[in-house]
Structure formats: C-alpha cells, structure tokens
Design brief:
single chain; 274 residues; alpha+beta; Thrombin, subunit H; six-stranded antiparallel β-barrel; 4 helices; 39% helix
C-alpha cells in the first residue's frame, strides 16, 4: 500500500492503459454498436478521436492558408511587375510628347531660314553638371560620333544655351551663356539696328551693354543673336529686365532674363553645320 501511495501517478497511468487494452480486446470480440459494450467502446473511441481529428483539420487548414498566402504573394509580385512595366510605358509616352513639344518650340525659336537651312539638328540629353545651382558647365551624351565639334552652338526649345568647348566620341561639354567667360553679341528684336554685347553675371542671369549709348532699348525688349561671331543670327537669348546708365563706362547697361531656364536643363539641341 505504501508503494501505491508513493507511485500514485504511475498507478493511475497503468490503470488507464489496462482499461484501454481491455476495451480494444473487447471491441475485437464484439464489433459494432449493437450491444451496450460496443456502444460504450464507440463512445470512448469517439471521445479520443474527436480532439485528434480537430487537430488534424486545424493543421490541414493552416497548411492551406500558408499555400494560399504564398499564392497571393506571388500574384502581388506579378501585379507589381505589371504596374512597373506600365509606368515605364507611360514615362516613354511622356518623353515622346515632351520631345515633340520641344521640336515645336524649336521651330518657333529657329524662325530664321539661315539657321534651319544651314544646320542639322542633333538632340542630346544632359547627363552631368558642374555641381553648382546653375548649368554654367554641363555634359551631354552626344559627341563626334554624332557630328558634334568644338564651338558648335547649343540651344533648346526656349532659346540660346551656349556652345561646345570640349568633345569626345560620345560626349561633349557645354559652356552656357550664363557663364561670365562666354560673350555673345545681340540685336534688339524690336529694332535690329540696336546692337550690344552680353555675358553671364555669375548669378544665373545675363548682363550686357549697348554699343550705342543712345540706343533706345527698354525694359521688356527681346534680344536675339546678331549673327556676328560663332552664333547664327536669330536665336532668342532673353528679355531685358532693367536698363541703367553707367557713368563710369559711359555705356547703357542692361540686365537680361535668359529665355532658357538654366536650373533644370534636361534636353538640348546642337546645331551642326551642313
């Protein structure tokens, strides 16, 4: 008796095991549920099978959920790829529309026949700049392989940009008109007898002076290239925003707002002599 008390748990487990063995043997000799014993056995087996069956169904359901989740993830990735592809197509269409608009603007800028007749046009992308806030110097992705040469004139749909100062097989470096070292002669579009010289002011704009100190230039006048020097005649440079008489030089100086927006150059066109 002392042994049974000391091993109470073991005794209970052995008792349950013995009962199960008896039930299994009895079910073998008394199949079905026609007798009270058979029905009792079936209830006992059902009692044991219930939780096991539920656990099995839970595992099956969990497995189905995992596979369904993986399927959803795969579909999601496929949709992401499809959306990315569509976005790329949209960007291409936008770029094509932008290039078309630039060519239309370019036809307005190049209103003089000597430009369109004497030059071929090579369009290029801006791929690097000098690191400042303004595009005083920048690099394009076209070079000698496209016919570009040193001192070729560079424009965009808004007006004059500058000139090529260094060139390689598939790249070229451009110095823009807003740089202080780049000078351009101009005419006043309203009265083409009025001539002057301009250069960059180092702040992203242009400044210059009238050759004739009595020239009747006024705020709002449009300035175009004169045709003297390397720049062909008739390309829009910018608009006069201020006129000042300089007592030191005895010249009429002007401040000019460039036609081109030099903070966001993306595409330019290079004029190549035929």
């Amino acid at each position: 008796m002392n042994l049974l008390r000391e091993h109470k748990k073991l005794t209970v487990m052995l008792s349950i095991l013995l009962i199960l063995i008896v039930i299994i043997v009895a079910s073998y000799y008394n199949p079905g549920n026609s007798t009270a014993l058979g029905r009792g056995i079936e209830k006992a087996v059902s009692f044991v099978q219930g939780p096991v069956s539920s656990a099995g169904e839970g595992i099956k359901s969990g497995a189905r959920g995992i596979f369904q989740f993986r399927s959803v993830l795969k579909e999601n990735e496929e949709l992401k790829d499809e959306v990315a592809s569509l976005n790329r197509e949209i960007i291409k269409l936008k770029l094509s529309r932008t290039e078309l608009n630039e060519l239309r603007d370019l036809s307005n800028v190049l209103g003089y026949q000597n430009v369109t007749q004497n030059y071929n046009l090579v369009t290029a992308d801006v791929i690097a700049m000098d690191g400042s806030n303004w595009f005083n110097f920048f690099t394009i992705n076209r070079g000698t392989n496209s016919g570009i040469y040193k001192d070729a004139v560079v424009i965009n749909g808004e007006g004059l940009i500058g000139r090529v100062y260094e060139v390689g097989p598939d790249w070229a470096k451009v110095i823009s008109v807003i740089d202080e070292s780049n000078s351009v002669s101009f005419k006043v579009f309203r009265n083409m007898q009025l001539l002057g010289i301009l250069s960059g002011d180092g702040k992203g704009s242009l400044e210059g002076y009238m050759i004739d100190p009595d020239a009747a230039v006024i705020k709002g006048d449009i300035l175009i290239t004169s045709g003297m020097g390397m720049y062909p005649e008739g390309i829009v440079i910018g608009k006069v925003k201020k006129v000042v008489w300089n007592n030191d030089t005895l010249l009429k100086t002007i401040a000019i707002e460039p036609a081109a927006y030099f903070k966001n150059l993306q595409k330019v066109t290079v004029l190549i002599k035929k």
